[in-house]
Amino acid sequence: MDNLAMFCYQCEQTAKGGACIKAGVCGKDAQVAALQDLLVYALEGLSIVATDARKAGIADREVDVFTVKALFSTLTNVDFDPDRFVKLIDRSVELREALKDRAKKAGAAIDEKAPCVNYQPEKTLEGLTNQADVASLRPAAGVNADIESLKHILLFGLKGVAAYADHAQILGKEDDAVFAFIHKALAAIARENLDLDAWVGLVLRCGEINLRTMELLDAANTGTFGHPVPTKVPLGAKKGKAILVSGHDLKDLAELLRQTEGKGINIYTHGEMLPAHGYPELKKYPHFYGHYGTAWQNQTREFAEFPGAILMTTNCIQKPRDSYKDNIFTTGLVGWPGVRHISDHDFSPVIEKALSLPGFPEDIEGKTVTVGFGHNAVMNVAGAVIDAVKGKAIRHFFLVAGCDGAKPGRNYYTEFVEKAPKDTVVMTLACGKFRFFDMDLGDIGGIPRLLDIGQCNDAYSAIQIAVALARAFNCEVNDLPLSMILSWYEQKAVAILLTLLHLGIKDIRLGPSLPAFITPNVLNVLVENFAIKPIATPEEDLKAILG
After folding, report:
1. Which of 239, 270, 319, 369 is 20 to 30 A away from residue 290, measured at CA?
2. What is the pTM of this model?
């Protein structure tokens, strides 16, 4: 096991900008990396069967939902527990064989040429990890590097789509077209019989499907919890017992708020949960107090100082320190070996732990930040925004958004916002905003210069705002005084980027580094067709954009 080969390059923080080949910078070890790749391999086999079964009119919702959840579990910083991957691999094969039998009985023709269609997992953990060579993403000799690059762009984009689809499905929103495409794309990756143009088409189609998926998620969130409204959120603390909720899953937060009502426990958000304070059905709880900490990569320091229980709801978990390992819980698809997992929305253990811990001994004063500028809120003041642009009070909009991370170079985004002229507006979403979320940028005629649109899950809102502004000015999105300055870290960011490319958005600046899985030739295609470019310095980029 010690000699198990590792190869992972799906995130931005890969070792030396290439790939993690000994251990993941995220904390993932070689065994977990191998099991994740093997799970994807098993899902490819399941997807071939599901795709062929669909051609015969057979769709299996259990297979659809399972595929989404299993694929999401391989996204960066979600699940680090090898035992759970073993169960997912076994279940993938069970579902594949059951669907294969059902489809054949109905007269469907199942293509069984790809080895993954008949893959049988070993019965031991060691045996299973030793099978992982068949699923490795390590570039092989003699393989077309550009096609391999596009396949991996597609795979990582699919992981992002799966994340959004899972969030939406949990709240009752789904679309068979999304499930069908995920299966079709995974099947294509396994079959390996497409030319370069076909792969480009699938990659852009992934962006289109992700747009639909984010639309479902937006409808799920706003339909369940109401449209976000501008809300001031305290960054200090309130005397008393405390629970900190991190991740992205609003349903988990809603359940926890309901279960802690009247128990004398204040609920705080962390990381990407910050925008939850803007939802009417969540902010109605008086014990939903404020926000603690900053971005995901700072959690080991921040969690160690938090005097209450901690609940991780989706991706972004890091290896817990011993000092708080007994205080942290996971739920949903999140997992870490030795950390207690809540699988049924019964948060009693979390509540009991919070009551046993000291909480905050006194009130702590702090800044406030304002959240809740989703597309509905922004459109309510669209008239004032349009007038400000026409009157030249607002010269330009910047969407400074994306994932944060620990690697040097991300201070670019802080400096960019600091140096953006006072007649410009900064829209932001996702955890990249924690580089500047508490800055006081003032306002322009009552319009805040810093507008927090929400989580990475709320990228649909940013797109809708851009489309609405383009409609108001009777122009294309690319003709708006709007520039996108994006930071990426994991695979949801890849999916969002593919959506922007599908929409024909040009001149995107991407950083802090370009993905290692994009070859020079594929990058050249992106540059030529979409004018995508790496970030330079804030001064250079502002001058290039504003003149």
Report:
1. 319
2. 0.96
